[in-house]
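Why does residue order matter? Because the sequence determines the fold. Keep that principle in mind as you read this record.
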Amino acid sequence: MQTVQTLDYHTAGEPFRIVTGGVPTIPGDTILVKREWAMRHLDHVRQLVVNEPRGHADMYGCFLTPPASADAEIGVLFFHNAGFSTACGHGTIALVTAGLEIGMLRGVEIGPDERRVVVDVPSGRLEAVARTEDGRVRSVRFRNVPAYVETPSLTVDVSGVGEIDVAIAYGGAFYAILPVSATGHTVSPEHLSSLIALGRDIKSAVERRHVPVHPEGRSLRGIYGVIFTESVTGADGKHARHDRNVTIFADGEVDRSPCGSGTSARLAHLFATGEVRLQQKLVHESIIGTRFAGHVAAETTVASYPAVYTEIEGRAFRTGSHTFFLDPDDDLGTGFLLR
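Structure:
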């Protein structure tokens, strides 16, 4: 009988299932090498904790690993309904929150009620700062890997919609970004089924024409998600921008949160088009009304691309813990997915 232990959190409504037991130590000198090993040897465990009847089509989670950077406390490998991802902002927020609250991470005190934690993720090294109060983590902000616009405009033909223009931006993974109005919909639960189908179609249409590849790593490639955006009037003060979005990623998976790495990609795009300034706050709202706060912290470059460092902040909450079993006589094995 196989057993797997997990600790479950949500960040702004998006689940994050942390595997804490039942898997071996993951070998490798770098996080990307560890990711490759996990893809070959632990995919059955990913399926076990993501698939029904133990999970669902929109479950998200991670394996923990020893860090690869000298000053990092922990490494993490993110996974979802279709495999393993290179970045996950909501997962980083949840992991730092969980690690500090249960004593798995210590961090370094950098100010009153603030602790700095360094996490190694497949897309790079992330510095996170947790704001604490009375032993609780009240929020986590992280400085993401450099984000940039890979393709400012690409026209694709989508069945039922026609030709639409998307931008391709990187925020730890590649996203196709477009205004939801181009599809005749709004970012709202009543339009979600249509947006899931469109997200799948747009992802396929983009990759038929162009497959983005990060210049510093060929394993960082392909469209991870499609971000449908719309502007929200009545922003939080005249100096902040307020957008709503929904991100459809992996195999039609819906991000309930505003999407952390997607928020970085969105900020890179807004900065490149002059729609946000350095240090200007972006209030990024999800399809369920939850929010992340983000801003462009500094400019940099990635190969020949102008790029930016972004900082994203959100809050996570513990939802439970589990010991999952796989009975060798169970005909369903590691499970199934229905939507």
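Helices lie at 31-41, 43-50, 89-102, 192-209, 260-272.
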